[in-house]
Design a protein that fits this description.
Elements lengths: L7 H9 L21 E10 L2 E11 L4 E5 L6 H7 L10 E9 L2 E2 L7 H7 E4 L11 H6 L2 H4 L5 H14 L3 H4 L12 H13 L5 E5 L7 H14 L4 E5 L3 H7 L2 E6 L7 E7 H6 L4 H7 L5
Parallel strand pairs: 3-8, 3-9, 6-7, 7-8
Antiparallel strand pairs: 1-2, 1-4, 4-5, 9-10
Helix pairs in contact: 6-8, 8-9
Bound molecules: adenosine-5'-diphosphate and magnesium ion (MG).
């Protein structure tokens, strides 16, 4: 107990309330996180001499859902990987431009790779839990990234919190020790979302998270995205126009025209991009005329 609480203040407090014993477990932190704004400025990307992105600038506002749409091969996944420094892991990959996280350049030498990965989580197309590892251990698997020592009780709470936020808790609460690989595809994807959330990222990147899922599981993941919005900034790549319309606040349409690097043709509020696209190429794409 600190000195400040041993004086008269503590005396007056004990008159009216019972102080908890000094050894009581600390109250755990709340489930909510503060979303961050991501801003890409003039991003360009290469694989060897092949330039795949050019002049991509996009602000992904805090707490909103931004959908990246466009035909295959136009650089959506590459762009997503530049947002949490996964692009640089690919041999011969190069990058230009800036990515700002609440105004801080994530490529600044003061940012470690683990800072980027912890603050900016990622969920992939194919659910990739550790199949032999228990559901519980899958959720806490990312904690090693943070370097923080976490007690058993704290882990238990984090597992419940993360699975709840991912919309999976009620389905798995009674079988946390079963292997992650025993879950259905849709549950595995929500387990991966829980694993990503367990390190409390402020941004979550999702690369076609539902493309391997059935319609019911897709709906569950979309509900999860809705519930996360506000707490986490979401950037989602999707080929499903209905999904983009359902889940996103704003939308960016990527295109790579014949032999040129990919870039954003148009971006804006999702209602505007779908309801009244300004560019004919966007209109053709969202109407399903190509791609
Ligand atoms: N690891 C890689 N090595 C070389 N080229 C790649 C690699 N990944 C993607 N590409 C190329 O970069 C371009 C953009 O790919 P990608 O970002 O996956 O597009 P999208 O996600 O929009 O389908 C494509 O021409 C693709 O062939
Ligand atoms: Mg892709």
């Amino acid at each position: 107990m600190t000195d400040s609480l041993t004086g008269s203040l503590a005396d007056s407090l004990t008159d009216t309330i019972v102080l908890p014993p000094a050894q009581a477990d600390p109250v755990t932190v709340t489930a909510t996180t503060v979303p961050a704004t991501l801003e890409a400025r003039d991003v360009a990307a290469w694989f060897g001499s092949h330039q795949v992105l050019s002049h991509v600038s996009l602000t992904m506002p805090a707490g909103q859902v931004t959908a990246l749409i466009g035909p295959s091969g136009c650089g959506k996944s590459t762009f997503l990987r530049t947002l949490n420094r996964m692009h640089e892991m690919i041999p011969a990959a190069a990058l230009a431009g800036e990515v700002l996280f609440d105004g801080e350049d994530i490529y600044d030498p003061s940012w470690r790779l683990t800072d980027a990965r912890r603050r900016i989580g990622m969920v992939f197309q194919k659910p990739n839990p550790f199949p032999a590892m228990s559901i519980y251990d899958n959720v806490v698997a990312g904690l090693r990234l943070t370097g923080a020592r976490t007690g058993r009780r704290e882990k238990d709470q984090l597992v419940e919190e993360s699975l709840s936020r991912a919309g999976l808790w009620k389905e798995v609460r009674d079988r946390l020790r079963q292997p992650g690989g025993a879950l259905s595809g849709g549950q595995q994807q929500r387990l991966c979302i829980a694993r990503a959330l367990a390190v409390r990222p402020r941004v979550l990147l999702m690369d076609e998270p539902c493309s391997a899922l059935d319609p019911t599981s897709t709906r569950r993941v979309e509900e999860t995205i809705h519930e996360l919005a506000g707490e986490v900034t979401v950037v989602i790549v999707t080929h499903n126009m209905q999904q983009a319309a359902r889940v996103s606040d704003q939308c960016a349409f990527f295109l790579a025209e014949q032999g040129t690097p990919g870039g954003i043709v148009e971006h804006g509020l999702t209602d505007d991009v779908f309801g009244g696209p300004k560019d004919q190429r966007t209109a053709d794409y969202v109407a399903g005329r190509f791609g």
